[in-house]
Specification:
The chain has 327 residues and is of the alpha/beta class. The protein is built from twelve helices and eleven strands. The strands form four sheets. A five-stranded parallel β-sheet has the order 2-5-8-1-9. It has a two-stranded antiparallel ribbon with strand order 3-4. It is globular, with a radius of gyration of 20 Å. The structure holds adenosine-5'-diphosphate and magnesium ion.
């Protein structure tokens, strides 16, 4: 039986905003940094998407994901990716039960609600693919048998920048399984100083402030957020810009545009609205589209970045106001 769709009433919008604020405040007890980072994780949670966090060692990627997961009160597993990790270490394997003399499935860590895939680019492509497929399909096939994963299911993966030694870059064609790719740089000087002064002793534990059913409710409500036709045109304009850019070898796909719409709905709801604004789209476009376009080899050599093309698109592609204003 399909679940009844909850109406996006003003009090429900307020409640989601409050829950999101509480989650962000709790994360702030363990992680000091740009609030936009935690907001991006919340956007992905709302939009049923996954996040890839890239940054040098020691910028608190793992700390952030663990804190965020702790607030959610959902089942949590962590996979530390290493060069010898096998696909079955992610999905699971059948083992012989000596008592009954039958094979039983020992479920891998992918059977969870919130999965931290830590240092995902330290494992070879085949192992990465096992996770990426599960993310895409919300199911895994083990020895020919297909199993559905739990709901909610969100993967928060971290990776070191690919120039580093001993890493296997994620297959280009699969990076778009991540709704959002976040780059975490060094903290602002004031934040870094506060971090040094705060975490010279063990930090207070992060409290659980929501549960799986809250997450599912928030996800269902995010789907109900209104997107005006002009905004769809705007997304199409941004996407088209990437397809005709001389530095771009492969522009944003229709799936990329759809991802941007989903994410924008999540952000609108987090910010207390039941409709998307052009600013939601502008804010998220680099995070959602940046890793979904492929640059020409020459542009790569010059050090151009996907996100810079998206920023250019935002500068050049105008948003056409609807007659009679925004809703
Ligand atoms: N912005 C920050 N906020 C809170 N703690 C930080 C921050 N930056 C670094 N740290 C501290 O430094 C360490 C970072 O480790 P970790 O989270 O494992 O980083 P990474 O996963 O990026 O390598 C942790 O002990 C963490 O408390
Ligand atoms: Mg780490």
């Amino acid at each position: 039986m399909p679940m009844p769709v909850p109406a996006l009433t003003p009090d429900r919008v307020v409640r989601v905003t409050q829950l999101a604020r509480t989650i962000a405040d709790e994360v702030g007890r363990a992680f000091i940094g740009n609030p936009m980072i935690t907001e991006a994780l919340l956007v992905a949670l709302m939009a049923r998407g996954h996040v890839l966090i890239e940054g040098y060692p020691g910028v608190a990627k793992t700390t952030l994901v663990k804190a965020f997961s702790a607030t959610l009160g959902c089942h949590f597993r962590r996979i530390q990716f290493t060069p010898d990790l096998l696909p079955s270490d992610i999905t699971g394997t059948y083992i012989l039960d000596m008592r009954t003399n039958t094979f039983v499935l020992r479920e891998g860590p992918v059977f969870t609600n919130v999965l931290l895939g830590d240092e995902i680019n330290r494992a070879p492509a085949k192992t990465q693919s096992a996770l990426l497929e599960a993310m895409q399909e919300h199911q895994v096939t083990i020895e020919g048998e297909t199993r559905t994963l739990a709901e909610p299911f969100i993967v928060l993966a971290t990776q070191n920048p690919i120039e580093q030694e001993g890493t296997y870059p994620l297959p280009e064609a699969q990076v778009d399984r991540f709704l959002i790719k976040l780059k975490m740089g060094y903290p602002a000087p004031a934040d870094e100083k506060r971090m040094l002064g705060t975490y010279d002793r063990s930090p207070p534990p992060v409290r659980t402030v929501v549960g799986p059913s809250d997450v599912l409710d928030m996800q269902a409500l995010a789907q109900e957020v209104f997107v005006a036709e002009e905004l769809l045109d705007y997304v199409l304009g941004l996407v088209a810009f990437t397809r005709s850019h001389p530095k771009v070898y492969l522009g944003a796909s229709p799936r990329a545009g759809l991802a941007l719409v989903h994410a924008a709905k999540g952000l609108a709801l987090l910010r207390g609205r039941d409709y998307v604004l052009p600013d939601d789209v502008r804010h998220l476009a680099p995070l959602v589209l940046g890793h979904r376009i492929m640059l020409t080899p020459e542009a790569e050599l010059e050090g151009a970045a996907g996100t810079a093309i998206i920023t250019e698109a935002i500068d050049k592609v105008g948003y056409k106001m609807p007659k009679g204003g925004v809703r």
